[in-house]
Design a protein that fits this description.
The protein is α+β, with helices and mostly antiparallel strands and 225 residues long. It is built from 6 helices and 15 strands. The chain is 23% helix and 37% strand. The longest helix is centred in the first third of the chain and has 15 residues, at 38-52.
Length: 225
Amino acid sequence: MQAIAAENNLPATAFVVSAGDGYDIRWFTPAAEIDLCGHATLASAYVVFNRLKPGSRSVTFGSRSGALHVSLRDERLAFELRARPATPCTAPAEIDKALGAAPVQTLHAAVLLAVFDSEADVRSLVPDMAAMSRVDPHGVIATAPGSDVDFVCRFFAPNLGVPEDSATGSAHLTLTPYWSERLGKSALRSRQVSKRGGELWCEMAGDRVRIAGYAAPYLEGTIEI
């Protein structure tokens, strides 16, 4: 699986196998196995709903992060996981160099969260990946208020073989509680302003976060190993 993920050279590759009434799932970046990948989980659910069990509207995946339940809601694929709220922290020494600009606030949960004043600030970041790899071993989220969405973000994880991720569901387990508290609302719309881009609909549900998004088929075929 690791060799296949390295050959794909995408931010994450999901592997799914039937297990009882549901499926087991694992995720790999080009460099390592990871505990969770939200967008690859939603893509896997799309395959279940449209290829493996056509007409189904919910599926449960067993994973290193526990049971993941994905359902189809208003044509969006949605799943729910425990929130990972961040707490304020002292900015790492190389954060300005790593991101190419100084954040107005830094917090930490599973990864570092760097907050900026505007969407333009986040879009214009030109990160130094060598410095980024020293700032946090698991990754750095950059975020700011959005111009036509509630917030925007980017996610960098060079130590995992992902210089910049396109759309990061797991990052929203930290982003959603932060922006929910700051904006005083439970339902939020996010735009990940990576080169490929991604839009997610997020909602606080007690101590959990509901994340939803769209999926589309790209390729079907076989590989040789």
